[in-house]
Each structure stands twice: as C-alpha cells, then as structure tokens.
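Writing this down once: the sequence line spells out the residues, with the fold written below as integer tokens. This is how one looks:
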Amino acid sequence: MTAARGALTTAITSLDHATTSDPHFVRAWLQLAQIYRDQRSPAAAASAATAAQASSAQSSPRLQQAAAASVALNASGNLGAAISAAQQMLTAFPNGVRARTYMGAAQLEQGRFPEAFDTASAALTREPTNVEALRIAALAMIAQQRFEAAAPLINQAGNHGDALPEWKLLLQWLQNNMKLPDGSIQPANERIALSAMQAALEDASGNSRAAREMWQSLALEIGTHPQLFSAAGEVLAQEALEAALVEDCGVVPAIAGSAENYPLGASARFRVGLASALCGQLDRADKSLSELTSSFPQSSAVQDQYSPELKAVIQWKRGNAQAGLQTLLNTRQADMSSFTPYLRGLIHLRSGQSRDAVTDFELLLQHSGSTVLVLPMMYPLAQLGLARAYAASGDHGNSASAYAAFLTIYSQAAPNSALATEARNSAVQ
C-alpha cells in the first residue's frame, strides 16, 4: 500500500495488534469487520465477523448479539438474521445504537429505504456523531432522490472524523447533472471505496480508458495488502461488468479471469458471472451461478437477486428470452435495489418487446438515486436503452431526445466510442 493509504493501514494495523494481544477483544474484531466491509473486502470482513462471534462466548449478551448480527451481515449475508439479531439486542437494550446501525444497514441492502432512514435517525437521536448511522441515513436519502437532505448528513460525518468521501463524490455528481466536479478526481486516495467510486463515475461519464487504468492500478495496489486481498477481486469484477455493459466484450474474459485469482464475495462472483453471461461466455457464467448457490447458501442477495438475475441472462443468451423474463418475475420486489429492471429491459428490447422495455428503462430513470447506488453506469445506460426502445417502437422523436440525454451524461466518451457514435447519429431528427 502506498503512503496515501497510510491512515487506513494504520487503523487496520492497530486493530490487528489489539486482536493479537487479546483474541477475545470482540469490539476490535467488530470494528475490523466494519472497516473491511466499507473498503469492499468481503473475505476479510467475513473472517473478522466470524472471529468476533467465536471470541464472544465469555462476553456480555449484548456483544454476543452484536457479533451474531455482524456475522449475518458480513459472513452469511442473511439479512433477515441480521435484523432478527438486532431486534433481540433492542429488546434487551432499547437505547442501543449499534443494534440500530446493523438493522439499518440490512434494511438499506433490502431496498427498504424509508425504514432504513427511520432506523438510522433513531440511532442518531441517541448518538448524533455515529458515522455509520449518518452513512445509512444519507444513502437512504440518496436512494429516495432527496439529495438536499443527504448533503448535511455527509457533512456531519466529516465533522466527526469520517468524511464519507466516496458518497460525497457520488452526491456531487448527482447534484451536478451527472458530471464530475472539476478537481474531484485525485491520483491517489486513502480509501479503496473512494478510488472505486472515482473509477465508476469515470465509466459512467464515458471515459472508459481512464476508468480502466484506475481499476487496474487499484487492483494491483490493494492486491499486495493481505487483509484487503479480496477487494482486488471486487474492483476487477466491477471493471469486467462495466466493460460488458458497454458491449466491450473483447476485454471481459481477461479481466474476469484476473478477478478469479482473488477470493470473491457474493457480489463479485455475481458480477463476474453477469459480465460473462452478457458477453455470451456461458461456461464461466454457469460456473459463477453454481458457485453462488454453493458458496453463499444463506445470502439474501444471492437468493433474492444474484442467482435469479444471472440465471435469467443465461436463459436469454441460450435463446429462451421468455424463460429469462419469467425468472426475473421472482426478483421484481427488488427492483429498487438491483439490476433486475435493467436486465428485464435488455431482454424485452432484444426480444422485440420494445414497449415493455420503455417501461423498464423509465423506471430506472425515474429513480435515479437508487439506480446509481446499484451502479452509477446503469443510469446513462438506461437512458441509452430507452432511446433504443423508443426507436424500435417507431417513436423517433422521443428516441432522439433520449439519445441526446444519454450523450449529455456520456460526454467524456472517446470520439470512436461505438455507443457515442450511435447516439450522435440518432440524436438529430
């Protein structure tokens, strides 16, 4: 790790020393799990949460329940179990803040944004400086397109030791008409999550070359840090998926193969599989689907989103679009927190059901906050999908307007970008 990431390394090293000196230091294990979760290192987060639970046998009931909630969030991925453990904590300790942050984090992942905000607000009533509660509340506001309410929450976190820079940058992008503010991209950052957000927003702006360099540099850097090893797989999996989404399938096999050199969490395994499926590399997609179900049997995201979404794309790519659409019916309840509407729109569009595709893409565009929390690039690509769907249905006026809107966001694309060229040629009637 470079010196630019020194504070993160120092925090991890300090907590590692604490757990080495006292393996039963449950609070230190819980802090490590939270850091690794924030920095997109799922294997390390799962290991720390599991260690917290293993070392909590002689601890207070409150810490035992906290460890159980952390395991549910960070190891098994069972969001229902995380909420249940948090509820048990609140039954015994009604004023608990940690319980509310675990519950709010689970609700946020479930797409229950108003409830997540209420839960985080209740935590902040009791501890106004709790950064995790501020993060949950801010993201719940972003998801509901209440950007003006999210800003002071992020600023308040900065006043208490954690500026949440990745979420601050995303919010700035949203409030700046999906354009990166001048000077917002820095060559090195203390937080992995911030660097990943920067790369994602470059991709969403069409600057795929700069994004590719950022993804690769970040993966190389963090891949040398033992505790953050799995984060390298996470960022490479996202790079592979973003390349597949812009139909740059020639680079996907190599990037996906590189990602598989690291331990992959459920999200990364899904993204490798989805990238492969979208590009017709169905053997790797089949492997990813099998590993999702075998390696993450309790994961709510796998059961409710990742497995059916990946299965649907595989079915579509094998020539059975209707089976794919039927599979996606089972994930409709996760529309606001998943890839489902976008994938449904793609399948509708490519199978000649353009009016249904219009509905799917409009849903994503009408909920910009929740759409970009899933993946920033999904918003401009939904705009592109809408333009194509209108064109396929014969509505060339609305198609031209949608293409023009896509170009406004995708403004940093190279002159020879296939997507930008298509949009430029179609945006003028």
Notes: Residues 1-5 have pLDDT under 50 and may be disordered. The radius of gyration is 21 Å.
